[in-house]
Amino acid sequence: MSHPGMCCREFVEFLSAYIDGDLPDDVRKDFEKHWIDCPPCLDYLESFRATIRMTHELGRCEETLPAAEVPRKLIDAILEARRRCKDGPR
Ligand SMILES: [Zn+2]
After folding, report:
1. What is the mean pLDDT of the chain?
2. Is residue 3 part of a domain?
3. What spacing in Å lies between the alpha carbon of 81 and ligand 1's midpoint?
4. Res 45: pLDDT
5. What is the pTM of this model?
6. Could you say which of 4, 42, 66, 78 has the lowest number of CB atoms within 10 Å?
């Protein structure tokens, strides 16, 4: 299975699997390569992680969807990055 570079849409889709450690090695390597060239995705990953950590520390329900708590600004950054993605549908 080959992954010739990951686009932002895939990055977002793989994010929770990555956090859970569920990504196969080859996918994880592409995932980690992606954010080197894509600061918005790195920001997104970091705030996603921080949100999960916070959620756990507060002892909240683990089912809480972190995406719902990501600041609007970061979501806009991701949408902007997706628009630039060559592999995207548009
Ligand atoms: Zn990206």
Report:
1. 79
2. no
3. 6
4. 94
5. 0.56
6. 4
Report the percent of the chain where pLDDT is more than 70. 76
41: which 2 tokens?
A: 């995705």
Separation of CA 60 and ligand 1 centre (Å): 29
Tally of structural domains, the chain: 1
**What's the domain range around 63?**
8-84
As given in the structure block, the two tokens for residue 3 are 């992954």
- How far away, in angstroms, is 39 Cα from ligand 1 center? 7
User: How far, CA to CA in Å, does 51 sit from each of 11, 44, 54, 62?
Assistant: 18, 10, 5, 11
* 1 Cα to the center of ligand 1, angstroms: 21
Q: What is the mean pLDDT of residues 1-16?
A: 78
Could you tell me the distance, in angstroms and rounded to a whole number, from the CA of residue 14 to the centre of ligand 1?
12
- How many A from CA of 55 to the centre of ligand 1? 25
10 vs 58: CA distance, rounded Å: 30
Q: How far apart are CA 10 and CA 82, in angstroms?
A: 10
